[in-house]
Specification:
alpha+beta, 6 strands, globular
């Protein structure tokens, strides 16, 4: 059973996003970014209360900007999905989860050391250039349910 409802267009969106955000971090880095996308679609809390689909996650606007920088200014995001990234996207919607992105709702590349928290949410780990953050448990129980 899939972790989140999806169709082929969703797979292509995830594939394009993981390539744009983490191609330089290899397959594992792209899987972790994809996992954050799925986690946001599943979480019913904080910035993600009204975000239920993959499309809504990818094109979510926060503070007047797209939540993912690649949507706003990433030329890789607007290229067609490739089969490698489609396979990775199918993995994350169906079953793939791993620390530090297992419950993460946020990630970013600080071009330096990872801060111990990100907008009050604890740092869970780093993979290559990306720092991952999951919600404080009592603020977002739905992020830990599945």
């Amino acid at each position: 059973m899939a972790r989140v409802a999806y169709n082929q267009k969703d797979i292509d969106l995830i594939a394009r996003m993981v390539r744009a955000e983490a191609e330089g971090e290899g397959r594992l880095g792209m899987l972790m970014v994809g996992n954050v996308i799925v986690n946001r679609a599943k979480a019913d809390c904080l910035d993600f209360e009204d975000v239920r689909s993959i499309r809504e996650v990818i094109f979510q606007v926060q503070g007047g900007n797209f939540a993912f920088e690649a949507v706003q200014k990433g030329n890789l995001f607007y290229r067609p999905a490739r089969e490698l990234e489609r396979r990775l996207a199918r993995q994350v919607v169906k079953y793939w989860r791993q620390h530090p992105s297992k419950f993460a709702l946020w990630y970013f590349n600080p071009y330096g050391e990872c801060p111990p928290s990100w907008y009050g949410q604890p740092h869970t780990g780093q993979y290559k250039q990306h720092c991952y953050y999951e919600p404080v448990a009592n603020t977002c129980e739905s992020a830990y349910r599945y």
